[in-house]
Amino acid sequence: MATFDPSDIGVNNGNIYGFPYREDAAQIHILPVAWEATASFGRGCAKSYEAIRQASLQLDFYDEKGALWKTPIYMQEALGEILNSQAAPKAARLIYYLENRGQILDRMEDFDEINALSKVLNNLVEEACHDLIKEDKKIIILGGDHSVPLGLIKALNKNQSFGILHFDAHADLRPGYQGFTYSHASIMHHARQLPNVESITSVGLRDISPKEAKIIRKDTHINAYSDKWLAAQRLNSRPFSAVIEEILKKIPKKIYLSFDVDCLDPSLCPNTGTPVPGGLSWHEIQAILDALYYSDIDIVGADLCETGNHPWDAQVSARILYQFIGLLS
Which of 7, 192, 248, 262 qualifies as a cystine partner to 169, CB 3.0-4.6 A? Predict the structure, then answer.
């Protein structure tokens, strides 16, 4: 392995952050999934993994938590590009058709085709993750729209129980959306059906449907900390450390971390697919990630999804991804 100087310039060697680590030696594998067929508004996240890799070369690596860069990391080649090229254009036309009063039943064969391709993608991701898990590797999925982590969650679910800590502006609890069974708006619905997912704790919600709100109220295994609730804590001058402590008390000791960047204030990732006013500040999300790092909670896997294909959004996501490395180390 080549030497790595964290104070030197980033080397464009194909790996994330210009790290010199080989695939076989890496403890953490970053698996990009180039898929955005179910994106319902803005597009571009299927290509954001390369923007994030390029942005990662600009990071400086000092962190008070220690030398996170010493953990061997390897970024795999992206999965799903061919499938996405088949599905995304047709899916975009179907969404336009529905928004102009078209009916799903009139185009059922087309919707079935997209759902079949989504299932192929899920299986592809699950198989790739299963092979890495057998080698005792930890995995971070880099989306793509927020439907893409299902394969990893299913692979992890086969031999262990865990909760999901879910950062998002949306609840993602719809059984399906816009005719798509495996929609980005349905990832937490599908995760909730898995037998070993103990609970889902969602943070930052501020754009949910009435049916999703009813599910949250009725399901005792779903905890929701809305953006409005978080704002009320700020306005009442409650220390944010106390807010974090309350959230972390609700999650089990083993969790999967699912992160849609639209949980953040839109100034941080303005080109995400479905931006919503409000959201967590940069310092707030850093405080939460630091608290997770210093806790006794075990992070079994993670995803970072819906980054817009733009240099600024990529800079933000590259820095969040670096914090995830510390959490999974």
Answer: 262
DSSP 8-state secondary structure symbol assigned to residue 180 = B
Q: How far apart are CA 231 and CA 240, in angstroms?
A: 10
12, 16, 13: which is closest to 69 by C-alpha? 16
CATH class of 16-328: alpha beta
Determine the pLDDT at residue 4.
85
Residues 6+ apart with CB under 8 A from 6: 60, 61, 62, 67, 69
Contacts by 155-160 with C-beta closer than 8 Å and gap 24+? 155/126, 155/129, 155/130, 156/129, 156/256, 156/300, 156/301, 157/194, 157/195, 157/196, 157/197, 158/130, 158/196, 160/196, 160/254, 160/300
Q: Which residues pair with 163 in a beta bridge?
A: 255
Average of per-residue pLDDT values in the chain = 94
CA distances (Å), 37 to each of 41, 93, 115, 276, in order? 11, 10, 10, 20
Which residue, among 308, 300, 223, 327, has the nearest Cα to 261 in the 3D structure? 308
- CA separation for the pair 130, 286 (Å, rounded): 30
Q: Which residue has the tokens 């198989």?
A: 127
CA gap 62, 112 in Å, rounded: 49
Partners of 164 in the β-ladder: 200, 256
Q: For residues 162 and 252, is the Cβ–Cβ distance under 8 A?
A: yes
Which sequence spans correspond to the domains of the chain? 16-328
**pLDDT, tens digit (0-9, with 9 covering 90-100), for 273-300:** 999 999 999 999 999 999 999 999 999 9
